Structure formats: C-alpha cells, structure tokens
C-alpha cells in the first residue's frame, strides 16, 4: 500500500495524471483544501460532494487538541473528519517556523501521523525563510535531509513524502532535489515558498521551482506547499507542479475577500458577483454582504473558484493550450508577468517535457515568441534541406526559377509549402505582423541559411520589412539577396 504516480497527458511541464495512494486513485492537477478540525467553515463531507478527492490537515494541531487527539488515535482521521478521500497531514513544521521549538520532534510527528491514519506523511522539515543566508540555508537543508532519512527508519511502506527545501538559493534547491531523487520518493513537496507568494516574488518562485524540478525525478508528483490562490496555479502547473493546498478559501472569507481567477477583491467594494457558482447565482452582492452566514458563503464561493481553476488547468493540459492560460492569468498582475517572463528563460528545460504537437498556437504578444513551440521549430529548421537556389517568400506569391521555395510565417520563420497544414504553422493564429514577430521568424531564416552552406538564398519581402530583416540577418548578410 504505497504511493504511485502516472502521467497521462503533458503540456509544457504540466501533467494530467493519476496519483494512487494506497487503494485510492485521484486526478492531478489536484487541490488539497486545508482543514483545521477546530474551525470548519465547510465540512469535509460537504467538500466531498463538491468533488474534492483529497485534503490536508495538520498533525501538530491534532496532537495538541484535547478535543480531537484521542479520537484521532482511536478512530482515525477519516472517521473524525468524516471524509472518504485521501488525507495528507503536515508535520508541524509551519508552527515550528513561526513559533520556534514547539516540542514536537521528527520521530514523534512521523509516528503520530501514522497512528492517526494519515495516507501522505510529512517529516519535520525546516521551512527555510527567504532571508536566510546561503550558509544558514545549507545547514537547515542538511537537517531536513537527515530528518527525512530518519523518517524512513520509521515508515518504509511508501507513504512518506520528502520535502524539498533550500530557501531562495537555487543550487541548494538542486541539491535537495537530487537528494530526494536518490531516496526514490514519489511524492515531493517543494516547501517554504509561501513568503515568496505573499510578497509577489514570482520571479524568484520560478527560479526556486525550476531548480528543484531540474534534479527531481520526472516521475515524481510535485506538491507546491501553500500555493492557495488560483491566479498563480497555471504558472505553477506549467513548471510541473501537480498538487496545491489551499487554506486561502477560508482565510480570505474571514477577511471578507472575494476570490476570482484574476485576483481577489474586498467584498465591501464588489457591486456584482461575476461568478456562476451556486452562492453567486442565489445571492446579490448586497445580500451576500449582509448575510449572517457571510463568512461561510464566501468560503464556499472561494472554494468553488479554486476547484474550477484546477479543472480549467486540467482541460488546458489535455487540449495543449496551457501556454495560453498561463499568458492570460499572468497578465492580471505585473509581478505574475515577471514570473511568466522568467519561466520563458527556461525554454530548453521546458522543451524536454513539452508535447510535440498541439491543438493550436495563439499569438498573444512578444512573450509568445519565446514559447517552446517556437524555439523547437527554430531548431527543427536546421534539419531542413535547401538545395541550389532557395527562395524565402514573405508574400506567398509564386515565382519561377528556384530549386527550393520556402514560405514565411512569423514567429516561426521559413516553412516548406508541404508543411502548411502541419503544427505549428498550420494550427497557429497570429495578428498583423509586428517587429518582435519578425525578429523571431528571422531566427528560423538564420538557422536555415547556416545549415545549408552551399546554397544561394533569396528573400522576397516588402521594402518596409527589408531593414528589419537585414538587421536580424546581419551575421549572414553575404549569404542572401533580395528579390
């Protein structure tokens, strides 16, 4: 009875798959709503009716609870919480990071989690804060790895997960990823990223996650600890994060905050409820504000929105349109856009996981020129032959006297007419050409010319494009002429 993970569909580094925990199988990407047994705005059995397949609760809180500790030990978590799905428990590391030593050792938390029937068990890792120096983070990572190995002496049936720590230091995140990979752990949370998300440091978040992913096994199921707001789920999924946990649905409700996939709003400032969930369709904004059950109703709405975004991401992975969703979500906040642009710097790493063909390519601005589909096409062009006199036509007009004719479509570049209906050229929608698009397409031309040393190249384009093309092809200016 262990944990296994099967990838069914991929897009970028995002995966739609099956996570098997014991005899239960759940779909990924996956949301784990956070449950505090003392404060349940939405009960676990109600979540189950909404389609929640797994949740996470805190072992430390159960261990210190006079009301729930003995019941959990006697009856097990599933009966206490009245939930049939998968239950994961956090170790108490969060409380330790906030309050210091909480008197709950690694051995104690692992044994306690096992005794109350947790199905995904977390060792007492150290959540290294972003302000820690390299040496401090290195020391804390060393302790975390020791504790993970210690936990394996207590639990060896595959239900133990292994957190990846290291602070904001990418080389330490890589080291942690490699250590965890060598332990053959299937379920791998990337921890201590909440401070980065709370302060909108998405650029650093991308670097941290991509560093860890570069060393973790491709078959590992990746849990991004504390990633609870739907506005950043698509970005995280594109990096290969499969599981998210959210207390935000309840915390935001207590603060009177109304979630949307684009961001959050203070309920008192909302005049309309732009959502199709049951709460929003049975209440006006004014009724929701004045309801004595406002906090609970708002938590319901926030959970609906969060679950809907997970489903939307799953569908986009199946359709091969995750890039479009990432682009759409990340344009809702400048810092998310920073994260998106940072992710595009990892094209080589992303390409290794991305699928070859997709449903479509929608050009959505200059960032689209850096997507995996474009960079892969530019590399593919190097393998195309172009013998004798070669024409690259920007206007699709027929011209005689050439041995090989290529057409041109930015941001990809030159393509053989026979490839007109194939991906990505045939399944791409682009607006009127802009400078960034032309620059990107010229990379394809450059690669074609450099890969065919003995050919004569001619380019047919409008006069207003010649300056831009010449600037991008200055390294091979002696290899082509305009016609």
Please describe what this structure looks like:
The chain has a seven-stranded parallel sheet. It has a five-stranded mixed sheet with strand order 16-15-14-18-19. Strands 1-2-3 form a three-stranded antiparallel sheet. The mean pLDDT is 95. The protein is elongated, with a radius of gyration of 26 Å. Helices cover 42% and strands 18% of the residues. The longest helix has 26 residues, at 294-319. It has helices at 44-49, 59-64, 69-75, 77-81, 93-99, 106-115, 134-152, 170-182, 194-198, 202-215, 233-238, 248-254, 278-282, 285-290, 294-319, 322-330, 334-343, 347-351, 372-381, 435-451, 463-472; strands spanning 3-11, 14-21, 24-28, 30-35, 54-58, 86-90, 120-121, 187-190, 221-224, 243-246, 257-260, 263-266, 361-362, 389-393, 404-409, 413-415, 428-429, 456-460, 480-482. A hairpin with a 2-residue loop joins strand 2 and strand 3. Helix 10 packs parallel to helix 17 (334-343). It is an alpha/beta fold and 483 residues long. The protein contains 21 helices and 19 strands.
List the helices and strands and how they pair.
Layout: E1 3-11, E2 14-21, E3 24-28, E4 30-35, H1 44-49, E5 54-58, H2 59-64, H3 69-75, H4 77-81, E6 86-90, H5 93-99, H6 106-115, E7 120-121, H7 134-152, H8 170-182, E8 187-190, H9 194-198, H10 202-215, E9 221-224, H11 233-238, E10 243-246, H12 248-254, E11 257-260, E12 263-266, H13 278-282, H14 285-290, H15 294-319, H16 322-330, H17 334-343, H18 347-351, E13 361-362, H19 372-381, E14 389-393, E15 404-409, E16 413-415, E17 428-429, H20 435-451, E18 456-460, H21 463-472, E19 480-482
């Amino acid at each position: 009875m262990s944990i296994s993970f099967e990838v069914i569909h991929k897009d970028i580094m995002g995966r739609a798959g099956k996570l098997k925990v014991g005899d239960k199988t759940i779909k990924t990407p996956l949301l784990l709503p956070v449950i505090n047994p003392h404060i349940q705005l939405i009960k676990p059995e109600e979540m189950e009716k909404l389609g929640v397949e797994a949740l996470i609760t805190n072992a430390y809180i159960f261990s210190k609870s006079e009301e729930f500790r003995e019941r959990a030990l006697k009856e097990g978590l599933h009966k206490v919480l009245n939930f049939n799905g998968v239950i994961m428990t956090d170790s108490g590391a969060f409380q330790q990071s906030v309050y210091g030593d909480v008197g709950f050792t690694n051995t104690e938390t692992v044994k306690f989690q096992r005794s109350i029937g947790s199905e995904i068990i977390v060792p007492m890792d150290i959540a290294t804060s972003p302000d820690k120096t390299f040496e401090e983070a290195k020391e804390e990572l060393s302790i975390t790895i020791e504790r993970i190995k210690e936990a394996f002496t207590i639990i060896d049936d595959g239900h133990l997960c292994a957190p990846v720590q290291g602070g904001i230091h990418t080389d330490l995140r890589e080291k942690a990823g490699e250590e965890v990979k060598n332990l053959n752990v299937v379920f791998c949370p990337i921890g201590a990223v909440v401070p980065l998300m709370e302060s909108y440091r998405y650029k650093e978040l991308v670097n941290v996650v991509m560093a860890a992913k570069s060393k973790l096994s491709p078959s590992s199921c990746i849990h991004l600890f504390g990633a609870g707001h739907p506005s950043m789920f698509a970005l995280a999924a594109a990096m290969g994060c499969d599981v998210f946990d959210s207390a935000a649905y309840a915390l935001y409700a207590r603060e009177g905050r109304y979630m949307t996939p684009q961001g959050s709003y203070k309920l008192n400032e909302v005049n309309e409820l732009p959502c199709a969930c049951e709460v929003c369709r049975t209440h006006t904004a004014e009724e929701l504000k004045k309801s004595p059950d406002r906090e609970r109703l708002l938590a319901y709405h926030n959970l609906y929105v969060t679950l809907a975004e997970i489903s939307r991401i799953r569908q986009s992975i199946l359709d091969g349109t995750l890039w479009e969703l990432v682009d759409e979500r990340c344009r809702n906040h400048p810092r998310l856009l920073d994260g998106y642009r940072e992710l595009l710097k990892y094209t080589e790493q992303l390409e290794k996981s991305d699928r070859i063909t997709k449903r479509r390519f929608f050009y959505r601005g200059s960032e689209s020129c850096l997507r995996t589909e474009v960079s892969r096409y530019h590399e593919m062009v190097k393998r195309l032959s172009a013998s004798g006199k070669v024409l690259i036509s920007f206007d699709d007009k027929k011209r005689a006297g050439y041995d090989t004719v290529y057409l041109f479509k930015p941001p990809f570049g030159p393509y053989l007419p026979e490839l007109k209906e194939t991906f990505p050229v045939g399944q791409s929608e682009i607006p009127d050409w802009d400078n960034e698009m032309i620059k990107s397409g010229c990379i394809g031309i450059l690669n074609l010319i450099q890969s065919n040393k003995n050919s004569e190249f001619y380019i047919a384009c409008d006069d207003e494009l010649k300056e831009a093309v010449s600037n991008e092809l200055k390294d091979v200016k002696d290899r082509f002429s305009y016609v």
